[in-house]
C-alpha cells in the first residue's frame, strides 16, 4: 500500500540525515523533492502545493537551520501535516440511538461496494452487532446472488426481492430488519461505469426511503485523481459521511486517499486490503501517516496479533520458549498463529522501516508458500520426532524431506533453526536474570 511514496520519502529523509546541517537552499530543495513525491503518488496538485508550503513554514519556524538532526524535525512536521491532511484520526460509527443503524453504500460499478458491504457486516458482527444486508442492486440478477453468497459466507441475513425496485426493497428490508431485531442494516446499491443522472436519482430515492445514519462512498483506490471528482459528485447529491478506499492491497499510488478529505471534507473511514471478507481495516489518520513516512504501523500489528492470538495459549508457549524446551509442536502452533494474522507480506509491510527499505520483490520472497513448505516439513515428522527433535538422525531427515516434497538441506536448516532458537532463548533467560539482579542492587 502506497509503497512507492513511502520509499521516496524515506529516501528524502535519508538524504537529509546524510547532509546534517541544512542551508535554506537545502530546505527548498527538500521541499521540492517532497512535492514531486506527492505528485507522483497522484496527490492533487493544489493539495501537494499547500502541503509543502505549510511544511516549509513550520520547518523554518522550528529553526531547522543549524539543527544537528534536521531529518527528525522535518520527519515530525511531515507526519503531523499528513495527519492533519487525512483528517480526524478516527471517526466512530454514528449509531442510531433507536436501532437499526442504517448504512447506505454507494459508488461506481466495480469499486467494491458489494464486497465491502459483506466486509462491514463481518466487522460489525465482531463488534457484537447483529447486521443485516439489503440487496438493492437490481441492475443485474447476478448482483443479488453475489450478495446472498457473501452474506451466507459471513453468516448474516440478506434481504432480497427479485423483480422489484430498489426503493421498495430498501423499505421492506428496513421493516424486516426491525422485525428481526437486527441492529445494523447495510444497503448495497447499483453502480454505473461513470456518474450519471439516472444513477444519482435512483440512489437519492433509496436514501429518502431509509434515511441512513451513514452514507459510505466506496472508491477503488487505484483510480487516482478521478476518485476526487466521483466523491464530489456523490457528496453533492447524497451528503456522504465517509469514504472507503478498496484495493489498497494493489498498486494504488495513494493520491486519492490523501486528497479526498481535503478536497471534499469527507473523512476516510475504512480501507479494503484484499478480496476476502476479513480484509477491511478501520482507518486511522495517524497510523496511515506513519506508514507513509516509513514509521510502520506498530499498533496495527499489535491489533492483528491480538486478534489472531485471542484464545490461544500464549502463556504456556512463552514459558516453554524461556526454558529452552521449544519443540516442533510449538513451532507448528506458532506458524498457525502467525498465519492467522493474514498474508505475511501484509504483516511485514507494517513493520517500521522494513517496507521502505525492502524492494517489493524481497517482500514477495518471504511469501506464504515458504511458510507452507516449513509447515509441510514439520507435518511429515512423527509425533515423537516433533516433541523430541533429538532423534532426528540422517535417515529420518531423508524420509521427512521425501514426505514433505522438500530437500534434505531445507529439513536440516529448519532443525538447526529450532536448536538455535532454543540456545538463544536460554541465553536470553540467563541475561534477563542477571539484569534483574543488577537492578535490585
Ligand atoms: N484486491 C482487492 N479486490 C477487491 C477489494 N474490494 C473489492 N475487490 C474486488 O473488486 C471486484 C468488484 O467488487 P464488487 O464488490 O463486486 O464491486 P461493486 O460492483 O461495487 O459491487 C471484485 O472482484 C472484488 O473481489 C479489495 O479491497 N482488494
Ligand atoms: Mg455490486
What does this structure look like?
This protein is of the alpha/beta class and 441 residues long. The protein folds into 3 domains: 3-86, SRP54, nucleotide-binding domain (Four Helix Bundle (Hemerythrin (Met), subunit A)), CATH 1.20.120.140; 101-295, Rossmann fold, CATH 3.40.50.300; 303-440, Signal recognition particle, SRP54 subunit, M-domain (434 Repressor (Amino-terminal Domain), Orthogonal Bundle), CATH 1.10.260.30. It is built from 21 helices and 8 strands. An 8-stranded mixed β-sheet has the order 3-2-4-1-5-6-7-8, with helices on both faces. β6, α10 (255-264) and β7 (268-272) form a beta-alpha-beta unit. α3 (45-61) crosses α4. The longest helix has 33 residues, at 408-440. The two termini are 49 Å apart. It binds guanosine-5'-diphosphate (GDP) and magnesium ion (MG). The site of magnesium ion has 4 residues, from α5.
Note the main attributes of this structure.
Rossmann fold; 3 domains; 21 helices; Four Helix Bundle (Hemerythrin (Met), subunit A); globular; 441 residues; 434 Repressor (Amino-terminal Domain); binds magnesium ion; alpha/beta; eight-stranded mixed sheet; 8 strands
Amino acid at each position: 500500500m502506497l509503497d512507492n511514496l513511502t520509499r521516496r520519502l524515506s529516501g528524502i529523509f535519508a538524504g537529509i540525515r546524510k547532509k546534517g546541517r541544512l542551508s535554506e537552499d537545502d530546505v527548498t530543495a527538500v521541499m521540492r523533492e517532497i512535492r514531486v513525491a506527492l505528485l507522483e503518488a497522484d496527490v492533487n496538485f493544489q493539495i501537494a502545493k499547500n502541503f509543502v508550503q505549510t511544511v516549509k513554514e513550520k520547518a523554518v519556524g522550528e529553526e531547522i537551520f543549524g539543527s544537528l538532526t534536521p531529518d527528525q524535525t522535518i520527519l515530525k512536521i511531515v507526519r503531523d501535516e499528513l495527519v492533519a491532511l487525512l483528517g480526524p484520526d478516527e471517526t466512530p460509527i454514528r449509531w442510531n440511538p433507536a436501532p437499526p443503524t442504517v448504512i447506505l453504500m454507494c459508488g461506481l460499478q466495480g469499486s467494491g461496494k458489494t464486497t465491502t458491504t459483506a466486509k462491514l457486516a463481518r466487522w460489525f458482527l465482531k463488534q457484537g452487532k447483529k447486521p443485516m444486508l439489503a440487496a438493492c442492486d437490481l441492475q443485474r440478477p447476478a448482483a443479488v446472488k453475489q450478495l446472498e453468497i457473501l452474506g451466507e459466507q459471513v453468516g448474516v441475513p440478506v434481504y432480497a426481492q427479485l423483480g422489484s425496485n430498489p426503493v421498495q426493497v430498501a423499505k421492506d428490508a428496513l421493516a424486516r430488519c426491525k422485525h428481526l431485531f437486527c441492529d445494523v442494516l447495510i444497503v448495497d446499491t447499483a453502480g454505473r461505469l461513470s456518474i450519471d443522472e439516472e444513477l444519482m436519482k435512483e440512489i437519492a430515492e433509496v436514501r429518502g426511503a431509509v434515511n441512513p445514519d451513514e452514507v459510505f462512498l466506496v472508491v477503488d483506490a487505484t483510480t487516482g485523481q478521478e476518485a476526487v471528482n466521483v466523491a464530489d459528485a456523490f457528496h453533492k447529491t447524497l451528503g456522504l459521511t465517509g469514504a472507503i478506499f478498496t484495493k489498497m492491497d494493489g498498486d494504488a499510488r495513494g493520491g486519492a486517499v490523501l486528497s479526498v478529505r481535503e478536497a471534499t471534507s469527507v473523512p476516510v473511514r475504512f480501507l479494503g486490503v484484499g478480496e476476502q471478507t476479513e480484509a477491511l481495516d478501520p482507518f486511522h489518520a495517524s497510523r496511515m501517516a506513519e506508514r507513509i513516512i516509513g514509521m510502520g504501523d506498530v499498533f496495527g500489528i499489535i491489533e492483528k496479533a491480538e486478534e489472531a492470538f485471542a484464545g490461544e495459549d500464549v502463556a504456556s508457549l512463552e514459558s516453554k520458549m524461556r526454558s529452552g524446551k521449544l519443540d516442533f509442536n510449538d513451532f507448528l502452533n506458532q506458524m498457525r498463529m502467525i498465519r492467522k494474522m493474514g498474508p505475511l507480506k501484509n504483516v511485514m509491510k507494517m513493520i517500521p522501516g522494513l517496507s521502505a527499505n525492502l524492494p517489493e520483490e524481497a517482500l514477495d520472497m518471504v511469501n506464504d508458500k515458504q511458510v507452507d513448505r516449513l509447515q509441510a516439513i514439520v507435518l511429515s515428522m512423527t509425533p515423537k520426532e516433533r516433541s523430541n527433535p533429538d532423534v532426528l538422525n540422517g535417515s529420518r531427515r531423508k524420509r521427512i524431506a521425501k514426505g514433505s516434497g522438500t530437500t534434505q538441506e531445507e529439513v536440516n536448516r529448519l532443525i538447526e533453526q529450532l536448536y538455535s532458537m532454543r540456545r538463544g532463548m536460554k541465553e536470553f533467560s540467563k541475561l534477563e536474570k542477571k539484569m534483574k539482579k543488577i537492578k535490585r542492587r
